[in-house]
Amino acid sequence: MAANGTARGRAATGTIAGYVLRIARESAHGTQAAIAEAIGVDLATWQGWETGRRPLANIKAGALLNLRRRLLALGSDPQVLQLLDPAMDADRIVSATLFPENTTPHPLADWVHTRDTAHMLAWALNGTTPPALARRTSSGRRGPVAKAPLLPMSDRSVFFSQLRETADSAVRTGEGGLLLHRQALYLCSYDRSPEATSWMGHALHARRDLIAVRGWTPHWPTARSTATALVRLGDRQPLLDFIDRAMADDDAAETANLNYWAYWLGSIREPQPNDGFMRHGVSNWEPVCLFRGLTAGLRQAPAYEDLYVHSLWALLATHRWLPLADHAVTGMLRARTAELLDNNGTSPRARRELNAVQYVLRENRT
């Protein structure tokens, strides 16, 4: 039984990227046979890519580049093609967790994963469609068609079990395991089972001491992830405490927060091997991109509104011209801040910061 399960699992380690490839093909309005012929591969090879039996990550770099270029020329949506990289990264994380190898580091240990990768993982682990693909996932094909690259229940159970063990072992290795522990712990919050919720609550609350530390420390990114993961479990207070104690009135921590947002929202495009970029800074990120991303998030993720509000307040404090850069986004932000100020549930700090944001918006009204 174990051997067969392993074989099935290993055969599916390219499932996420294969599903994105299928959406890319469908966006070009081509059948598997037609696209395979146009690309210059046999039908079985193409079908293997789409099902994940032949992981795209195993293709030689030159062949993969040619595949992307040919699909683009055939009419595939470029935004879908752009998601092949995070999909392959997600497949790599799934494979390394299901089938750990002691000879190589876990991919969560040597690279800060991106929002797109996190969305791909959520898609495979709980069926949540990535926002970038929300309008692209339904197929017009007849017959039973998978709605998502959702891992089988047995694989999801093994994945989360192994990931919890990974998070526990990483924290015992000291500062060298901080990145792996932080990212594994955050992904564990995608498991919605009662057992996992109980484990997550215990694991996260065991790290709450980090939230009380003022300003920047090497544990600051872990504290931030802990606070946001607790929000996912319905506990908002640690995030409020984190903003008050570990961010507000500390220039290094405010810089770290904006740098992390810039990376998460795609304003920093260079891969980062560890969390050090938050503290030391990547100074060439585009503030307009960050302004748009934070404004969108303020509406799309109400559970995290305190963090979005504080981040927008900090961004506008140093880039007061931003409301002039995109009038449509500024209009969205003006409307959303008014809604939140009318809401009695808005925290006192968020209310003060929303008033400050509104002042900047009025200051730049044209």
Q: Strand content of the residues, in percent?
A: under 5%
Radius of gyration: 22 Å
Averaging pLDDT over every residue, what do you get? 89
Q: What coarse outline follows from CA principal-axis ratios?
A: globular
Give the tally of β-strands. 0
Unreliable sequence segments: 1-11
Largest sheet: none
Number of helical regions: 19
Classify the secondary structure makeup into a structural class.
mainly alpha
Helix content: 55-70%
| Span between termini | 68 Å
Please, could you describe this protein's structure?
The chain is mainly α and 366 residues long. Helices cover 62% and strands 0% of the residues. It is built from 19 helices and no strands. It has helices spanning 2-11, 15-27, 32-39, 43-51, 61-73, 78-81, 84-98, 115-126, 153-171, 178-188, 194-205, 220-232, 237-247, 251-264, 276-280, 287-300, 305-318, 327-341, 348-363. The longest helix has 19 residues, at 153-171.
